[in-house]
Write a structure and sequence with these properties.
26% helix, 9 helices, alpha+beta, four-stranded antiparallel sheet, 348 residues
């Protein structure tokens, strides 16, 4: 286990206070890009393609390619966070927006399943009326800082909530620098990692708790990566009969406190696409309340993407980067309660 003992001096080590607004991380689709996207969508629909069959070769965007490549390199080698702006969601149906978003995603990586449903394009919306134990992206509760099971994460806003649903993003490198400078005693337990509960997404014959620890931080070939979801850790500790030590709890609390302290918070607006590097940026969301009219309810489209050229990874992280296997008859929900990172930070 190699622990990085030097501060990171890199564009990825940003703090939210450095951004005047989300414009500082935004790239714009210009008129020629939007016209090209529109023509390409029309050709795909005319050819009878569907979301399940649409591939990169069906969505070539020669005029837009440079913009998308710029975004990709900023995600992979730069600050790790980008917003793409300019698509008019009022011009298209939701199925057409799904095709556009998926087509753009093919220029960034390869889509993977986000749940046992096998959904490669997730609908981030409140489903608790019919599934009270719905997984985080299908409920309206606060989501505390975490990473997902892919290399890139993307969210396209279709409709906003009546209230709340604010996006929160934090630099892993900035948090790590602060831990190194002020709380170095917490680095070892975070690098050592924790067993994770699979929350009912384990395959037949697979244990509900990982037999190995998954590191929060790992340092491989000069690259710092993060993998973190506190509720998975706390549930594994509780149900596995191995309570977290005070040092581990304090380390997690400190990590999350710093994550909020350095965060950039913003409202994602309709037509904007929010992209992040899943190893260098932690993301979260405030709770939200929907409009009473179902047709106005908050809706975001989510992509999980992998890319073979992304970065060297610890084998325990590499094993979790390809999404969640589809399992017939299962729903992305889990009956038992989870801890909340923000509540947990009040323990110590």
């Amino acid at each position: 286990m190699e622990i990085l003992k030097q501060p990171i001096r890199h564009p990825s080590a940003w703090q939210g206070s450095e951004f005047r607004s989300k414009e500082d991380i935004t790239l714009h689709f210009e008129a020629e890009h939007l016209e090209e996207i529109d023509r390409t969508l029309a050709a795909a629909v005319q050819a009878g393609l569907r979301l399940e069959t649409l591939e990169r070769r069906h969505f070539e965007l020669p005029r837009t390619a440079l913009l998308l490549q710029t975004a990709r390199e900023e995600l992979r080698l730069g600050r790790g966070i980008v917003i793409l702006r300019g698509i008019d969601v009022g011009r298209y149906s939701v199925p057409d927006l799904e095709m556009i978003y998926w087509g753009i995603g093919t220029h960034l990586g390869v889509g993977v399943s986000q749940s046992v449903l096998g959904d490669r394009l997730g609908h981030v919306q409140d489903k608790t009326a019919t599934d009270p134990h719905a997984r985080a992206y299908r409920n309206k509760q606060e989501l505390t800082p975490h990473t997902d099971s892919s290399d890139l994460v993307g969210l396209m806003c279709i409709r906003t909530a009546r209230e709340g649903g604010i996006s929160i993003a934090s630099s892993v490198a900035a948090v790590h620098n602060a831990l190194l400078a002020q709380f170095p005693q917490f680095l070892e337990p975070l690098y050592e990692g924790f067993p994770y509960h699979r929350r009912g997404e384990n395959l037949p014959g697979e244990a509900p708790i990982t037999p190995h620890r998954i590191p929060v931080f790992s340092y491989v070939e000069g690259q710092l990566s993060c993998r973190y979801t506190r509720s998975y850790i706390e549930t594994a500790a509780r149900e596995g009969g191995a309570p977290l030590s005070q040092l581990q709890v304090d380390a997690l609390n400190c990590l999350e406190r710093l994550t909020y302290e350095f965060a950039f918070e913003f409202q994602l607006d309709p037509g904007e696409i929010y992209l992040l590097n899943n190893y260098t940026v932690l993301h979260a969301r405030t709770a939200f309340e929907n409009w009473p009219e179902p047709e106005k309810a908050r809706l975001l489209l989510r992509l999980w993407l992998t890319a073979d050229d992304w970065r060297p990874l610890d084998p325990r992280i590499n094993a979790t980067r390809s999404g969640i296997a589809a399992q017939e008859g299962k729903l992305p929900s889990f009956e038992r309660a989870f801890g909340s990172g923000r509540i947990a930070t009040q323990r110590s």
